[in-house]
Design goal:
Number of strands: 12
Number of helices: 14
Strand content: 5-15%
CATH topology of the largest domain: Aspartate Aminotransferase, domain 2
CATH superfamily of the largest domain: Type I PLP-dependent aspartate aminotransferase-like (Major domain)
CATH class of the largest domain: Alpha Beta
Structural class: alpha/beta
Bound molecules: pyridoxal-5'-phosphate
Shape: globular
CATH architecture of the largest domain: 3-Layer(aba) Sandwich
Number of domains: 2
Helix content: 25-40%
């Protein structure tokens, strides 16, 4: 354990690998991730190399550097490297996939009410552009079994359903959805699935080839702990020819010598900072080395901590656990009573409970909202730098704060 000089509870002995402020009990890895010092140093090395000779770096070196990073990421995700495009974030991944799907006025796009609000906006815009209709499937929470999710998604389909955007791990409720089963059901019915896997890489042992969805997007800057701006869109081979980056650049017309149009287009969308993508291998190696069991050890350690923390907080609040253990990765959400003053799906104001926990206890933990009328939950995140003592301290903070 790291003994903090602040009077706050100790973090884990691995916390020194991160530059997180010791004056904050950081229980919100889920929102933006947190990148270890060693990984940031690697990114700085790439940046120094770029700035030492920008032309050499971008023209002569970058294509091969991207290939190396892509191969490492493809192995981590069990994905086909030929269909793996680096993008800045999962929001871009979802928007890019939506732009590739031909939608017509009578089509329906299925989403669930546990989806991420920004990606839901992208679906609404795609629907407005084409005249398609968005069909939202309500899901219960608490949730008794993963099968309830698959059943609800299937029930929401009609003969007009053309596409579906379904999360692998939900943002407001921290649930791991049975994505293999959902992907198989949708494939059988000819529905084009975009998986929003923003939270899945580094939290779940992924096999993108096995899932077999036409589109799967995920962030490397969340649970893999890569620098911000590292994400991917994996596109199945039958969809690659019609999938293009949102920005058209040189690759659209470059001669096809040793790379596919897909690779040429996605690897260059104009001058930018490619170092988050190039640093993905460092994140895979650095974080994987922090547990003797490698990445399987990292994932199961985080999951154990999330489960123990959830059980503790449920007992402090007097609630039943809201879902089976099998639906928990390294996020967990505990339903809270609704706020009486709010009827919006996504609230730009920070929830008063979240504010109180931060102000009075220096705890960074989000209160999430989803559905209409809005439901509310406290969402915890467990990564290697966290310790159970921090969640017990959160329990003290919750007991001292009214939850409304
Ligand atoms: C399910 C889900 N999708 C998409 C995103 C968006 O991620 P980003 O901001 O990196 O695009 C998030 C972020 O938390 C998320 O939880």
């Amino acid at each position: 354990m790291t003994n903090e000089p602040t009077g706050l509870p100790p973090r884990s002995g691995l916390a020194g690998h991160w530059s997180l402020d010791p004056g904050v009990v950081f229980l919100n890895h889920g929102s933006f991730g947190a990148c270890p010092i060693r990984v940031l140093e690697t990114q700085n090395e790439f940046r120094a190399r770029l700035e030492a000779e920008p032309v050499r770096f971008f023209i002569r070196e970058l294509p091969e550097l991207l290939d190396t990073a892509r191969l490492k990421l493809a192995a981590f995700l069990r994905a086909d490297p030929e269909g793996l495009a680096f993008v800045a974030n999962a929001t871009t991944g979802v928007n890019t996939a939506l732009a590739a799907i031909p939608l017509a006025a009578c089509d329906e796009i299925l989403v669930t009410d546990h989806g991420y609000a920004a990606c839901r906006n992208a679906v609404e815009v795609a629907a407005r552009r084409t005249g398609a209709r968005v069909v939202e499937v309500p899901l219960p929470f608490p949730l008794a079994a993963p099968e309830r999710v698959t059943e609800a998604v299937v029930r929401g389909l009609s003969q007009h359903t053309r596409a579906a955007v379904v999360d692998h791990v939900t943002s407001p409720t921290g649930l791991v959805f049975p994505i293999n089963e959902i992907a198989a059901e949708l494939e059988n019915r000819g529905v084009i699935l975009i998986v929003d896997g923003a939270h899945a890489p580094g939290m779940i042992d992924l096999d993108l080839t096995g899932i077999g969805a036409p589109f799967y997007t995920g962030n490397c800057h969340k649970w893999m702990c890569a620098p911000k701006g590292a994400a991917f869109l994996a596109v199945r081979d039958d969809w690659r020819a019609r999938t293009h980056p949102l920005v058209t650049s040189h690759g659209a017309a470059a001669p096809l010598v040793d790379r596919s149009r897909f690779r040429l287009e996605f690897d260059w969308t104009g001058t930018g900072d490619p170092t988050p993508w190039l640093t993905v291998p460092s994140a895979v190696e650095t974080v994987g080395a922090l547990d003797p069991g490698g990445w399987p050890g990292v994932r199961s350690r985080n999951r154990r901590l999330a489960l123990e923390a959830m059980a503790h907080l449920c007992s402090v609040l007097g609630f039943q656990q809201p879902c089976p253990d099998g639906m928990i990765g390294s996020l967990a959400a505990i339903p809270l009573p609704p706020r009486t003053d709010d009827n919006r799906r996504s609230n730009p104001d920070i929830d008063p409970l979240q504010e109180r926990l931060f102000r009075d206890f220096s705890i960074e933990v989000p209160v999430t909202l989803w559905s209409v009328p809005p439901r509310r939950a406290l969402r915890i995140s467990a990564h290697l730098y966290n310790a159970i003592e921090e969640f017990r301290y959160l329990g003290v903070g919750l007991a001292a704060s009214a939850c409304g």
